[in-house]
């Protein structure tokens, strides 16, 4: 089931998408109104997070391409946060900030939480997932390297496009995650190669931090990260979910 968050003439709503028809619901899928068509709505990021939690260095080949070795494999998930102003919608422009010279793409499988998580076990973790979607972890790589913390490098406005919808019926253990720039395949990974799978990530976060309905968790990026330039169209494609596409624009 594809669940969308959208804007139409009545405001912002949730809905279930079947073919080209949208059936209004609440976030959890309870029907709330008459049907409309996909062509009549604008898709929004399918989450309303209080927290955006991201996992870094979660694919061994990505660690290697960033200069790491087998000795650098993490013993537990390495987490960082993105600010809420980083969240953006399918189709929204990615503004190339004037203060960076290295804007990079990082395509990822993302998880949206549907139930409160606190001290859950790995076996319980997936029961609290509302659905899965595509996310683009936009990164100012030069500032990630130079700054004391990753706030500027990871949390600038619009640095987290998410969408186009949630897939509520997906097994996250083995799905293909790809990133294309101007139609050219740049990243091609599988979640079976995650160092820490989704249940491990969620249980680990919940051991010290409460996740609430609507919160967003990015699971890490495969190898193949690289630069973007003004005018580039970048697509994150997650098997079983769909395509998230955004275009890079110049800062004004």
UniProtKB/TrEMBL annotation:
Residues 52-248 form the Fumarylacetoacetase-like C-terminal domain. GO terms for molecular function: 5-carboxymethyl-2-hydroxymuconate delta-isomerase activity; acetylpyruvate hydrolase activity; metal ion binding. GO terms for biological process: carboxylic acid metabolic process. Residues 1-46 form the Rv2993c-like N-terminal domain. InterPro entries: Fumarylacetoacetase-like_C, Fumarylacetoacetase_C_sf, Rv2993c-like_N. Its EC number is 5.3.3.10. Gene3D superfamilies: Fumarylacetoacetase-like, C-terminal domain. It comes from the Bacteria. It holds the Pfam family Rv2993c-like_N. Keywords: Isomerase, Metal-binding. It is an enzyme of class 5 (isomerase). The keyword Metal-binding applies. The keyword Metal-binding applies. This is 5-carboxymethyl-2-hydroxymuconateDelta-isomerase.
């Amino acid at each position: 089931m594809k669940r969308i968050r959208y804007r139409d003439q009545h405001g912002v709503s949730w809905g279930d998408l079947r073919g080209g028809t949208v059936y209004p619901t609440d976030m959890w899928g309870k029907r709330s109104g008459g049907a409309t068509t996909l062509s009549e709505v604008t898709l929004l990021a399918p989450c309303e997070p209080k927290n955006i939690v991201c996992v870094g260095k979660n694919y061994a080949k990505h660690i290697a391409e960033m200069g790491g070795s087998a000795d650098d494999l993490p013993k537990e998930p390495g987490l960082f946060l993105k600010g809420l102003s980083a969240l953006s919608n399918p189709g929204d422009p990615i503004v190339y900030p004037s203060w960076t010279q290295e804007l990079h793409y990082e395509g990822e499988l993302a998880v949206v939480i549907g139930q409160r998580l606190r001290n859950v076990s790995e076996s319980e973790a997936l029961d609290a997932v509302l659905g899965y979607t595509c996310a683009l972890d936009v990164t100012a790589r030069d500032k990630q390297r130079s700054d004391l913390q990753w706030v500027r490098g990871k949390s600038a406005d619009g640095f987290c496009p998410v969408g186009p919808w949630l897939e509520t019926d997906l097994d996250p253990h083995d799905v293909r995650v790809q990133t294309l720039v101007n139609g050219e395949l740049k990243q091609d990974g599988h979640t079976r190669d995650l160092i820490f799978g989704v249940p491990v990530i969620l249980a680990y976060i919940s051991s010290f931090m409460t996740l609430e309905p609507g919160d967003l968790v990015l699971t890490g990026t495969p190898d193949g990260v690289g630069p973007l330039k003004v005018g580039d169209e970048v697509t994150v494609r997650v098997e079983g979910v769909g395509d998230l596409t955004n275009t890079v624009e110049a800062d004004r």
